[in-house]
Design brief:
Blueprint (H helix, E strand, L loop, with lengths): L3 E6 L6 H15 L5 E6 L5 H8 L5 E2 L18 H7 L3 H8 L9 H4 L8
Parallel strand pairs: 1-2, 2-3
């Protein structure tokens, strides 16, 4: 049986102060949750604040988007390298998402989907 996951993508909502306030209210509500994994995907501008606010909890923090490119003139894009820098375990997760040659991630692995079904 698959483990249940509850995930929230904040899109373009919440400032840094809003992020801190959210976690102050949210953490006590889910502190004893054992029936599922909880993932929050804040906007890139609030991801560091989310990591700090969720520190010590079981809540996972995710990026909303990641570019295939390491760097470049891609307005609004965020690279895996940039996400890894703000992640508490970013290097490990980045390596898990790269194929064996260390190049382009497989989209199904990056998105957390099984390529053979839902």
């Amino acid at each position: 049986m698959r483990r249940r996951v509850i995930a929230g993508n904040w899109k373009m909502f919440k400032t840094l102060a809003d992020t801190r306030a959210f976690f102050s209210s949210f953490l006590p509500l889910v502190a004893n949750a054992k029936h599922c994994d909880i993932v929050v995907a804040p906007p890139f501008t609030a991801i560091s604040t989310a990591f700090e606010s969720a520190k010590g909890s079981a809540i996972a923090i995710a990026g909303q988007n990641v570019s295939w490119s390491k760097e470049g003139a891609f307005t609004g894009e965020v690279s895996a390298h940039m996400l890894a820098e703000v992640s508490r375990d970013g290097r490990q997760r980045r390596q898990e998402n790269l194929d064996r040659s260390g190049k382009r991630p497989h989209s199904h692995r990056l998105l957390g989907r099984n390529p053979r079904g839902p």
